[in-house]
Amino acid sequence: DGCETVAVVTEDRRLARRLRALLERAGIALQDQGGWALSTSAAAAALHAWLDSYERRFQFRPLLMLLKSGFFQADALALRALERDLVYKAGIEAGLERYLARAAQWPQLEALLRQLEEAARGLPSTGRPRLLRDWMAGVERSLKALGLWQRFGEDEAGRRLLDILGELDAAFAQRLQRADWREFRALLDRAIERATF
């Protein structure tokens, strides 16, 4: 009672996140010096869902995670047709071309799938090593084609994610190193895991 300032010091990030959530729900103002792990944000989850979708040939689980992330603006009817009619009724588990072959009766779904197809073209083929900067340029192109780049800019964690992508791109410009897709993803994932917001 009557205390205006309280400090909590812990190295346990899980405990700190739980405490922060409880305090915010109670309307208590706080300053979290450690911040949140960027990898736990919805923006990072949307990025990972997109890259996983691309990597797994648009397997339905990461694809639906992306489309339902809140960062991707998917038409509700298109999303329902994809999930209910193509995935669950028709049993199509992956393959953008397979979804497209059955999507003609749903114009909104076909438009959505074409947008995904166009964004995927922005990413280089995962088959051979490339300059890290080429991988990063492809990620940026694909995020812009999906509209995610712009929506990340409207979100606090999304802006931090864009900062991390920019920092990586600048580092890759300094060091012209080649890597395959898995090595690139590992570097990207580690950078996001270490970052806070």
Attribute tags:
mainly alpha
Quick overview:
With 197 residues, the protein is mainly alpha-helical. The chain has helices at residues 13-25, 42-55, 60-67, 76-89, 96-102, 107-121, 132-146, 148-152, 156-174, 181-194, and strands at residues 130-131, 178-179. It is built from ten helices and two strands; from the N terminus they run ααααααβαααβα.
Provide a descriptive summary of the structure in words:
- The chain is mainly α.
- 63% of the residues lie in helices and 2% in strands.
- It contains 10 helices and 2 strands, in the order H-H-H-H-H-H-E-H-H-H-E-H.
- Strands 1-2 form a two-stranded antiparallel sheet.
- Helix 4 (76-89) crosses helix 6 (107-121).
- It starts with 12 loop residues before the first helix and ends with a helix.
Mean pLDDT: 92
Alpha carbon gap, first and last residue? 31 Å
Q: Profile the largest sheet.
A: 2 strands, antiparallel
Cα-based radius of gyration, to the nearest Å = 20 Å
Topology, element by element:
Elements: H1 13-25, H2 42-55, H3 60-67, H4 76-89, H5 96-102, H6 107-121, E1 130-131, H7 132-146, H8 148-152, H9 156-174, E2 178-179, H10 181-194
Antiparallel strand pairs: 1-2
